[in-house]
Design brief:
The chain is mainly α. The protein is built from three helices and two strands. It has one domain. The longest helix is centred in the C-terminal third of the chain and has 22 residues.
Length: 99
């Protein structure tokens, strides 16, 4: 972090993104076809948080978005252990997405 910011966003902004990201992923997981893309999630997070979307054509923004994914899953696992539903799993791994 630099001056209380990570990649130009405050801790509060990251927390909002993490919360919105987790809620989006939980909602998506409950759908009959539980798949999303970085592009869709980026647009949804921008809409839900009012923060600017990442430019996913930029390598720097891609790295930030991946960091958000890691932060979202790791910060939410502890909370979710108390409320995980049978059959639900979160998998972290190298995404297979073409930029």
């Amino acid at each position: 972090m630099h001056n209380g910011q990570l990649f130009g966003r405050t801790g509060a902004e990251w927390a909002d993104l993490e919360d919105a990201g987790w809620e989006f992923l939980i909602g998506r997981a409950r759908q009959p076809y539980p798949v999303t893309t970085y592009t869709e999630m980026n647009a949804v997070l921008a809409h839900r948080t009012g923060q600017p979307p990442w430019n996913l054509d930029s390598q720097a923004d891609q790295a930030q978005f991946r960091a958000l994914g890691i932060r979202t899953v790791t910060s939410s696992l502890e909370k979710s252990c108390e409320r995980i539903e049978p059959g639900f799993s979160v998998r972290a791994g190298k995404p297979r997405v073409r930029w």
